[in-house]
Design goal:
This protein is of the alpha+beta class. The protein contains three helices and four strands, in the order H-H-H-E-E-E-E. A four-stranded antiparallel beta sheet has the order 1-2-3-4, with helices on one face.
Length: about 170
């Protein structure tokens, strides 16, 4: 017979594992630089060149066929894409928020930043969603800030249509 007494609901506590505890995190979060894409780009280029060399050197071998040529060419194209898309992120989210604040022309209350990539070359761009500093906010805006040169790509500002009176 089991002599263990079940715990009462008030005694059960749920807690986060130590590696997920935000309060224990030290320092600011740094968004990874997009130029890290160049590392796999060089790896793909080297593998593609090695595959093409192998296909040419072992041309008569039963283990090497035309797929090596196609695979090597594909790796080279993929490596070249990674190299050209490896933009250096020169403007972090704080600098993007300052630029967005200048662009909208009103004092900012709450805001959030999200990294996105635009275009075929995957240029990094900050999406800044911001609200005016009134309570509740009268205005809101969305500003796209280029993370490479800090220019304003696009902006949209409107009166806040949300009704927060029944909050």
């Amino acid at each position: 017979m089991d002599s263990e007494v079940p715990a009462e609901d008030e005694e059960v506590r749920d807690s986060l594992p130590a590696d997920l505890d935000v309060a224990a995190a030290m320092g600011d979060y740094v968004f990874p630089d997009n130029s890290r894409r160049r590392i796999p780009g060089f790896v793909y280029l080297c593998l593609g060149i090695a595959t093409l060399v192998l296909a040419v050197v072992a041309d008569g071998s039963p283990l090497v066929n035309g797929g090596f040529l196609v695979g090597g060419a594909a790796l080279i194209v993929l490596g070249a894409y990674h190299l050209q898309a490896g933009w250096h992120v020169a403007y972090d989210e704080r600098e993007a928020l300052v630029g967005a604040t200048r662009a909208v022309g009103f004092p900012i209350g709450h805001a959030s930043a999200q990294m996105a990539w635009r275009g075929l070359r995957s240029r990094p761009t900050w999406r800044i969603l911001l609200y005016s500093n009134e309570s509740p906010p009268d205005r809101r805006g969305l500003v796209l800030v280029d993370a490479v040169d800090g220019s304003i790509v696009a902006q949209f500002v409107e009166d806040n249509p949300e009704d927060w009176s029944t909050g």
